[in-house]
Design goal:
single chain; 198 residues; mainly alpha; 6 helices; 0% strand; elongated
């Protein structure tokens, strides 16, 4: 910032404590930088010396590490979504086995019986996706503010495609659960309807 901006913000004159220098062509080799840093650190008024390519490399390495963490979190969240949807659908089918068997006896085909359950799963998935997108904004803000350190600030904006991808992944896991549970629905015996109290 300019000196005037600093004065306007803090109400006092700026006290420079950092010097930014550009090395001459041909001097910016690792050996030259090492000698320069050593010479600078011998000066009484110099507390430290850094080179921009070192800072850039360190920052890039940090971002790469964060990218791996993000991938692990996405995979874990996807696995959690799959397990939760699978358990909910499994419980739904198990508790309604007699009802589903009765529907089969009445002449419904396997696809129609599956659609009967899939409709409920789809509605639950859409409601869960909508709620999670809203709560995700607050969670994103919390995670970003918690992960930031003094030297690194992360972007706080959420792009529209992030919402699209998260919704699509949730729907994809719901479809996978439906595909896995189809065999269980198909295996329901019509004899189960004889055990039904009605």
């Amino acid at each position: 910032m300019t000196a005037d901006t600093y004065r306007a913000a803090f109400g006092e004159d700026p006290q420079p404590n950092l010097l930014y220098c550009r090395l001459a062509e041909g001097v910016d080799t690792a050996e030259s930088e090492g000698r320069l840093a050593t010479d600078l650190l011998k000066c009484r008024d110099v507390a430290g010396a850094q080179f921009t390519h070192e800072i850039t490399a360190s920052f890039t390495q940090s971002i790469d590490s964060i990218n791996y963490i993000v991938v692990v979190l996405i995979v874990a969240a996807g696995a959690l979504a799959f397990v939760v949807l699978y358990n909910l659908t499994n419980i739904n089918i198990t508790e309604r086995a007699k009802e589903l068997a009765t529907i089969k006896v009445l002449g419904f085909f396997d696809g129609e019986v599956a659609a009967y359950i899939y409709r409920e799963t789809a509605i639950l998935t859409l409601i869960g996706t909508g709620c999670s997108l809203l709560f995700g904004i607050a969670l994103h803000s919390f995670v970003i503010r918690t992960a930031e350190v003094d030297m690194v600030m992360f972007g706080r904006s959420i792009f529209p495609m992030s919402f699209v991808w998260s919704a699509l992944l949730t729907i994809l896991f719901s479809l996978l659960v439906n595909a896995v549970m189809y065999r269980k629905l198909k295996a329901i015996s019509m004899v189960e309807s004889l055990k039904a109290p009605e």
